Amino acid sequence: MAANTRPASRSSKAPPPPKPSKTERRQQKRKQEVDELQVLQKRVDEFDPKSTEAKTFADLPLSQPTAAGLQASHFTSLTDIQARAIPLALHNHDVLGAAKTGSGKTLAFLVPVLDKLYRAQWTEFDGLGALIISPTRELAVQIFEVLRKIGRKHAFSAGLVIGGKSLKEEAERLSRMNILVCTPGRMLQHLDQTAGFDADNLQILVLDEADRIMDMGFQTAVDALVEHLPKTRQTLMFSATQSKKVSDLARLSLKDPEYVSVHESASHATPSNLQQNYIVTPLHEKLDTLYGFIKANLKSKIIVFLSSGKQVRFVYESFRHLQPGIPLLHLHGRQKQIARLEITNRFTAAKHSCLFATDVVARGIDFPAVDWVIQVDCPEDTDTYIHRVGRTARYQSNGRAVLFLDPSEEEGMVKKLEQKKIPIHKVHVKDKKKRSIKNSLQNMCFQNPDLKYLGQKAFISYARAIHLQKDKDVFKLNELDLDAFSASLGLPGTPQIRFHKGEDVKKIKNAPRQGMSSGSESEMDMDGVKKPRRKKDEVRTKYDKMFERTNQDVLSSHYNKLVLDGDGKGAGSDDDDAEFLSVKRRLNDDELDEESKKAPVNAVKVIEGLGGKEPFVVDSKRREKVLQSKKKLLKFKGNPTKMVYDDEGNAHPVYELANEDDFKQEGPAEELRKRFVEGESAKVKEADVDDKQLLRERRREKKAKRKAREAMERAGIDPDKADDPALPQLDAEEDVDRGAALDFLRSLPTDGADRRGEEESGREEEEEEEEPPRKKAKKWFQDDDEDEQNTSERKSKKKRGKVFELEQEPETLEDLEALATGLLDG
Ligand SMILES: Nc1ncnc2c1ncn2[C@@H]1O[C@H](COP(=O)(O)OP(=O)(O)OP(=O)(O)O)[C@@H](O)[C@H]1O
């Protein structure tokens, strides 16, 4: 039975189904994708955006690549802000998100960005789909890094637009990007200037540190940038100090935004795992206190905030000389981009280090495991305080923060902090921990004029910053002991700064002389430093005398520059103003007009003389008049026209229309066209024949030349000395080749230079010859296999880019920029 049934069963077995063709497979895959997308969309629609039940990313209706990217980056559970903001954003709501520092806001906007584009099936041909704006370059780089991590399973391209490279280089890559992380100014520059790049298709806009981006410092850039974006986009705004300002919402045309503030009802505005204290220490003891603190915490990671780049430079340089025993770093907005990135990376990687910084890293930067945040200079407001202390105690880690307050600042600041629900306690420094570095600083400043110069700049910029602070309940310049402060920096005298009553930013910036001088020049020594009036019977030490010396050349020139730099570049204004986060107050157009009316009539602008000549002074009013009249004259000049001259010397416009009647008289247009074409092609043919003839002659000539040289060499004669009369006169019959060669060479110019010139031009011809005309034509009419080759080359380049992204961590800006062009896809 069995033997009978076997063949029957074999024959009844159905033949294997035919393998699906390539197209069929593609269609199947596409169908599968569409089905998956529909399922995903259904999950999103069915998910209640206001639900608070989701605890992990897996509970959210996320696309497979996003979920895989999050998992691969070890993000599993949701933070509060993520649990509440992501569902709303997935439902296309505009979101205003507020949550404490270090609570995971970055993922709260990056996840919706990736999924929005995924569900829209965004491809490289759709252009820019998402724009993420950050107030600082450092933060933009960090956001980009997180995006790269969690977006690794997506196929979107993403780039960083933060400046630091030429606009052109950045521009070349922009049009290929789906997601851009940028700073406002640079992005605007591209939208204004880069041909072929636009944001017309933008789906989603994100503002990280939104309150900062919307404030006065960025107002013009952001408003202009928004003009380039479509109104139909979705907008997400996040910050630890989010504002609901109606004007901001209107500026961004938000549509019924959802306000998500997860810690609104919390008892404190700062993380609960952050311990906060303040120390009352007079301004002139702040550096002593800081030094003592650093010495007592050598096995820690510390960030020290100071109010300006100049302060940072001075404290860093002087502490470096003092060698406290911990690696020191410094960061401010005037450093080169590459240095900023390098320092950020070094501090990130460091276990124990002390970073002196301005507010350029106050917001958003996620340095791991920072133990202490020290605020030597009081922050301008409570929001800045919150962001600064937020650099520690991030996510679930603990941290400590200390604020140094001058007695004059204590009452006002502590009150403000309490109002803002910030729990802060007063502590005292133990006497045995105190260290005075005043003498060391004085010695250092004496020996090192550059350090003294830095100290003076730091002093001026500090005093200036205090003067410009809006909050006069906290910042009281006249209650500060500036002489003692100056001495504590190691300066031999107090740099004089006089502020007129009611004087504001613009006057100080543009008229440093009036703002700075102590009234009469005679009150200053060569350093611009007021000599303390000596009491009659005062005993003066050797050091006192040395400090009073006026021949400290370096400093004199430095200080002259400082005082005379008319555009406010001196006088402690350049660094601070250019920093991203240090704009204290900016005047709007009306205020500027108002100020210019108030400006003194005899205001002068000092311009440095060229070539080491004396500076010269230009009356600004006269200069303005001259400029105005020049401008007026330009109006009457009109535009220049290019003319060409005929044989008789008559001028004609470059493109002159022929007289139509004359043209008609010459015959029918079609015939004229034919005649013209025939005539021109005959001319071309003729020229072609001539060219070929010329080419043939040149080749012949060169061949002969080469042969002659070879013959000379064979005959043991140096060809370059062919015209030497000392050469033996050969009998042509005796040695035909050699004779011919010599004759020929003698006919060449005797001048060595000429001959070299000819050889060089010969080489050029050779090179031209090497590429026959047909080869040249090939460049223009590229055939298929060449095209294919190029495409495969391009593909392999792309692939190389991907591998690089996955395998190599970016270390330099170049790396990052290379990444910027790559795909997120792993
Ligand atoms: N779901 C999560 N699981 C684990 N770690 C997370 C999660 N979300 C964020 N983090 C980590 O928490 C830290 C802080 O996150 P993030 O930088 O996004 O905070 P933030 O709210 O933007 O802070 P800031 O207000 O200072 O900008 C980061 O190191 C991040 O990797």
Automatic annotation (TrEMBL):
Residues 761-771, 806-817 have a biased composition (Acidic residues). Keywords: ATP-binding, Helicase, Hydrolase, Nucleotide-binding, Nucleus, Ribosome biogenesis, RNA-binding, rRNA processing. Belongs to the DEAD box helicase family. GO terms for biological process: rRNA processing. Its EC number is 3.6.4.13. Its main location: nucleus. Residues 286-435 form the Helicase C-terminal domain. This is ATP-dependent RNA helicase. Pfam families: CTE_SPB4, DEAD, Helicase_C. The keyword Iron-sulfur does not apply. Residues 699-708 have a biased composition (Basic residues). One of its GO terms (cellular component) is small-subunit processome. It is an enzyme of class 3 (hydrolase). It comes from Hapsidospora chrysogenum (strain ATCC 11550 / CBS 779.69 / DSM 880 / IAM 14645 / JCM 23072 / IMI 49137) (Acremonium chrysogenum). It catalyses: ATP + H2O = ADP + phosphate + H(+). Residues 21-34, 527-539, 676-698, 709-724 have a biased composition (Basic and acidic residues). The lineage of its organism: Eukaryota, Fungi, Dikarya, Ascomycota, Pezizomycotina.
